[in-house]
Design goal:
With 129 residues, the protein is an all-beta fold. 0% of the residues lie in helices and 46% in strands. It starts with a strand and ends with a strand.
């Protein structure tokens, strides 16, 4: 079965850090652009960040710029989301998604989530004291 699986979520205090991982099963993730999305209770899904297959193109939501960093290790078939200086408003279910498109890029519009082929089930991030 072709799928992506997230891990690394948890409970952290405000100001803390977490690193989320997105791994692929059944296919090679290095051929796909990858995006991270989140959804808080009662709110719509929000695009957080994305990265192109070649790593040369990344984008971030304004709310996470400077604090979050997306990266990928194509040899390990994993994409990471390093989250620093976490705030309570970062709480939510975090999803990763993989999409195949050309040219290789990750644009702001890719944070809308319309072009992705595979979605994970999410990992919960809770920021609370």
């Amino acid at each position: 079965q072709l799928q992506v699986v997230e891990s690394g979520g948890g409970l952290v205090q405000p100001g803390g850090s977490l690193r989320l991982s997105c791994a692929a099963s059944g296919f090679t993730l290095d051929h796909y652009a990858v995006g991270w999305f989140r959804q808080a209770p009662g709110k719509e899904r929000e695009g957080v960040s994305c990265i192109s297959t070649s790593k040369t193109s990344t984008n971030y939501a304004d709310s996470v710029k400077v604090r979050f960093t997306i990266s990928r290790d194509n040899a390990k078939n994993i994409v990471y989301l390093q989250m620093n200086s976490l705030k309570p408003e970062d709480t939510g279910l975090y999803f990763c998604a993989a999409g195949l498109w050309a040219p290789d890029s990750c644009l702001i519009r890719n944070l809308e989530g319309n072009e992705y082929d595979y979605w994970g089930k999410g990992t919960q991030v809770t920021v609370s004291s």
